[in-house]
Amino acid sequence: MSARRLLFLPVLFAAAVPARADDAAAALRAQAAAWDEAIVRKDRAAVENNLHARFFQIDGEGTRHERAEFVASLLDARLQIDPYTVPDLEVRQYGDTALLSGSTRMTGRYDGKPFTSHYRYIDTYVRENGEWRVVAVQITRIAP
């Protein structure tokens, strides 16, 4: 290989890395949006499929909830969540770990009574065997 071609290899490699990172960020955004929709639909299989086996959540009061408790609370028949968006979703990838953070205003009904919740969150995703799964969620309530 000529010296001239060797000079271009770092440029080609550098150009390829952001494309892969952008692809991963786009895939994670789509996966997070699909998960949000599954939560609203109460689609147990889709909700659970996005969760790592060792998943846990830290709620707005600082209480830790394990995977089964988290899923049960989302699928509780008394809870109805309206469709919602995350307008400021940010994805930061660090190898096989990604942090997805944003804020949302959630509305719905619990036991027939309306509720509104405004919070900021961070979801920690890990990639194992080519699949991204949420391993931890932490939320912080935003005061009205």
Automatic annotation (TrEMBL):
Signal sequence annotation: 1-21
InterPro entries linked: DUF4440, NTF2-like_dom_sf
Segments traversing the membrane: none
Keyword Signal among UniProt keywords: yes
Domain DUF4440: 28-134
Pfam families named among the record's database cross-references: DUF4440
Protein's name in the database: Nuclear transport factor 2 family protein
Taxon lineage: Bacteria, Pseudomonadati, Pseudomonadota, Gammaproteobacteria, Lysobacterales
Superkingdom classification of source: Bacteria
UniProt source species: Tahibacter harae
Keywords from the UniProt entry: Signal
